[in-house]
TrEMBL record:
InterPro entries assigned to the protein according to its UniProt record, in alphabetical order: Ig-like_dom (IPR007110), Ig-like_fold (IPR013783), IL-1_rcpt_fam (IPR015621)
Segments forming domain Ig-like: 28-131
Keyword Transmembrane included in the entry's annotation: yes
Name under which the protein is recorded: Ig-like domain-containing protein
Keyword entries, A-Z: Disulfide bond, Glycoprotein, Immunoglobulin domain, Membrane, Transmembrane, Transmembrane helix
Length: 222
């Protein structure tokens, strides 16, 4: 092998290595794990699917497109769905250029659950895609443990307070009645026996009744 042939071989090796390195650097790709991605959704609620691609050199992004395809397993053609919107955004961070495509559902419906949603990254170097499938989530969420505990404490304390207030009102209602009569000047002709009967009857009616006794006869006789 003469000098010219050696030069040609070295030139081809260097060129091939540079092209390989360049392809590895600028080749765009979709961020995330490959395969089917399942997204939990609630019927009647909004939902957004995110698909993000990354590339190194910004001068190659003009030849890159990121979009969504919506398909139904029972049909061969692509479909269009009402209430679904695509939004594409760009972002540059640490020398890398990111492009994100959002698929926004205003309100998730039952018909949306029947379709597959594929994010497609198209470029002159490669084509990548990622499929998303919606999975229905139960709308009846469990009550958090701390919320349940707090509610039980509040209910218990409230019950104790109400019972205490009721007991206090029962114990002191005679005094309230007597105070009212004293202030209004009513029933001033009550005798001592009648006052005693009134006090005892209001304080112990349940006890006397449960014993089968007439409160008036017990206090004042026949």
């Amino acid at each position: 092998m003469n000098g010219l042939e050696e030069f040609i071989v070295v030139f081809i090796m260097v060129l091939s290595r540079n092209l390989t390195d360049s392809e590895e650097i600028i080749q765009p790709n979709i961020i995330g794990h490959d395969g089917v991605n399942y997204e939990d959704v609630i019927i009647g609620k909004s939902k957004t699917l995110f698909c993000t691609a990354v590339t190194i050199h910004s001068n190659t992004t003009d030849a890159i497109s990121l979009y969504w395809l919506m398909t139904n397993p029972s049909e061969t053609n692509f479909i269009e769905i009402d209430g679904v919107q695509e939004i594409l955004t760009w972002n540059i961070s640490e020398g890398k250029k990111y492009m994100t495509s959002e698929l926004q559902f205003e309100l998730v419906k039952d018909q949306h659950m029947e379709n597959n949603y594929t994010c497609v990254l198209q470029s002159v170097l490669a084509k990548r895609n990622r499929t998303f499938i919606l999975r229905k989530k139960d709308n009846n969420t469990d009550i958090p443990k701390h919320a349940f505990t707090t509610g039980m404490i509040i209910a218990t304390v409230s019950s104790i307070v109400f019972v205490s207030i009721g007991a206090a009102c029962f114990m002191f209602r005679i005094q309230i009645v007597l105070l009212y009569r004293s202030l209004t000047g009513k029933d001033d002709t009550l005798s001592a026996n009648e006052l005693l009967y009134t006090r005892c009857y209001f304080l112990f009616p349940n006890l006397l009744s449960m014993a089968g006794l007439n409160p008036f006869k017990v206090l004042f006789g026949d």
